[in-house]
Amino acid sequence: MVFVREIKKSGKIYRYLYKSKRVNGKVKSIYIGREEVKNPHELSNKTKKTVSRIKPKHESVSRVIKDDKWIIDKIIEFNKLMEDSMDFIIKNNIKVAVNHYNKLLNTYNELSIHVGEEEKLKLYEKTKQIYDRIQELN
Fold first, then answer.
1. Would the pTM count as exceeding 0.70?
2. % helix / strand / coil in the chain, to the nearest 5?
3. Residues 6 or more apart in contact with residue 20 via CB below 8 angstroms
4. DSSP for 68-121, written as a single string
5. Is residue 123 within 8 Å of 81, Cβ to Cβ?
């Protein structure tokens, strides 16, 4: 890697070039040479580099495996929401039942990523059962 340092001496501007190199486990700057800047105004009007920005590609999000305690808490929350939804359906309180069903779906979506296929199928059957009950009442 080459480094440049500009120094002003007796009205002239010089560029000193250095190369970094690792010697005996330490980084040393090795002098390569110097060059005189032709135009003294070049120091203030340095050429600007334009960097084209590359749009980042949207890659699939890597799934983080949650610990067992988190999964158990979500399953308990799922069961509680399911029971509450069924209670509201029995009481013919459809609006509240639909709100609980929406929360139940959000919990199902979070759980479905982190549980196995058998458990996912069981959770799906439970949500489908509540959905069918709500559809019957409408």
1. no
2. 50, 20, 30
3. 1, 3, 27, 28, 29, 30
4. HHHHHHHHHHHHHHHHHHHHHHHTT-HHHHHHHHHHHHHHHHHHHHHS-HHHHH
5. no
Which pLDDT tens digits describe the chain residue by residue (138 residues)?
566 778 888 878 888 887 888 888 888 887 778 778 776 555 555 555 555 666 666 665 555 566 678 888 888 898 899 999 999 989 988 899 899 899 999 999 888 888 888 888 988 999 999 999 988 887
Domains (ranges, CATH) in the chain?
Answer: 2-40 (no CATH), 68-137 (1.20.58)
Q: How many residues does the chain have?
A: 138
C-alpha 1/C-alpha 3 separation (Å) is: 7
Residue 16, beta-bridge partner list? 5, 34
Distance of CA 59 to the CA centre of its chain: 10
